[in-house]
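COURSE: Structural Biology Practicum
ASSIGNMENT: Worksheet 4, Part C
STUDENT ID: 0417
INSTRUCTIONS: Below are two proteins. For each, the amino acid sequence is given first, followed by its structure token string. Answer the questions at the end about the second protein only.

PROTEIN I
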Amino acid sequence: MATQSGCAVEHLITTNMKTIIYILIIALVLSLRSPAIAGPVGDIRVFVPESLTSVSTENPSLSGPRRTASMAVVSTTGKKVSVVGKVDGKDVQVELNNNGRSRTIPNMRDGHFHAQVTLSLGVNLLEVRWRKGDGQWESKTLSIFRSSKLEGGLASTYPPYVFHKDENEEHCQECHRTTLTQAEIETGMEKSCLRCHKGLTDNLNVHGPVAVGICTVCHDPGSEPNRYRVEERDTVLCYGCHTDRKEIDDSKLLLHGPVGAGMCTICHDAHSTPFPFQLIKAKSEICIMCHQEDADRWNTQNSLHPPFKSGNCSGCHDPHSSDFKYNLKANRAEICGLCHEIPVPGHLHMVGHEPQFTLPADFPMTDDGKTMCLTCHDPHGAPGAHLTRREGCDGCHPK
């Protein structure tokens, strides 16, 4: 009996040894066929991104469905942020991804990295990834909320530039000078700024002060505790140079919303842009940033006005100021005459007369009760041919 038990134990040990040896052989083969995977590299430290404001969990701009559980970090109204950090170890690769796209490779030097990242409106989950050689990637995510300036209320100004303070700048001063030289202060030519912020001049149309390196026209190098803040609202700051625009706007009865709110940078970029007039988007796209719902409604119509279809809104509307409702360049009765001969030769309906029958309620007339072009034609889009507000004569002349 004992002999049988001993044989069973011996057989079990032999079987287990064979299994172990077999597993070791497989592991050895796999290790020869697969490249070695380096272990994880040390931690990464991201200093406060430039141009961001601190945000509390009670910020009303982050309320509702746009908010995530991890999003109590930073908020900004800028469309770009500069991310600066340091990673432990040498020969470390670093990359940034925003919302799973827009891969950015930062500039690296002695373990420090710097990159400019373009933000989307709303939540931006900025993932910072790093690895050594062909090792495995490690990552951490920053939650950044980009809101419209209008969400902060009409009294809001630029967010403070929180990066430029002593405790943050010490990480950069080994390679960069973050203060102005005496010569720059005396001459007003601050070329030092463009050594780090050279991307601000990359576009075709560069704002005059930026092009010649006079940054302190807008940025205060002596502001505390954060240097280089923009202290004034847009209209105060921009009108300081654009006095001709100020004279025109001051003489008009009505101001376009952003102008009236003192927020020129809703439409214009203060540094550089690919588009004329420093616009942040093409002329054909700039208006629908705010008026998308109107554009969607008109775009479904059968007949579209060519200026509206091509995005030439400024053909009829002044983007800054006007004496007429809807910021029109002329009153409603005369606006069509900017492009068309009035009265239109051979036109069946005469304008400038009192209506001969009861018009539908949505057919506008002049203040003194007379017809005009806009009485029958919608200036954006309409269901009938030639921008007529009804399809066919039956829409106005019932049988």
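PROTEIN II
(use this one for the questions)
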Amino acid sequence: MFNLIKSLFSAPLLPSADIPPPAREDAPRIFARLFSGDDGQKVLSYLRMTVNARVAGPEAEESALRYYDGQRGLLQTINGLIEQGKN
């Protein structure tokens, strides 16, 4: 059972297509273009609704708070790249 779980988490999330990651200076333009259409705006709206609206109660463990904060940080990174790419 452990090997099954280990294999699931060690596999890449997406199949490798031998596509190199973009250069840092190209990322803002790519993000702005990706999220500029209707579907991109819907995705951003959904992420904002699900990530920013989540409230942890007083019984929340530190690990959950860190997880939520990481999600918010990623969403802010995406928003920041989009804004940079618009300029």
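ANSWER KEY EXCERPT:
Q1: The CA atoms of residues 58 and 65 lie 10 Å apart.
Q2: The two ends are 51 Å apart (CA to CA).
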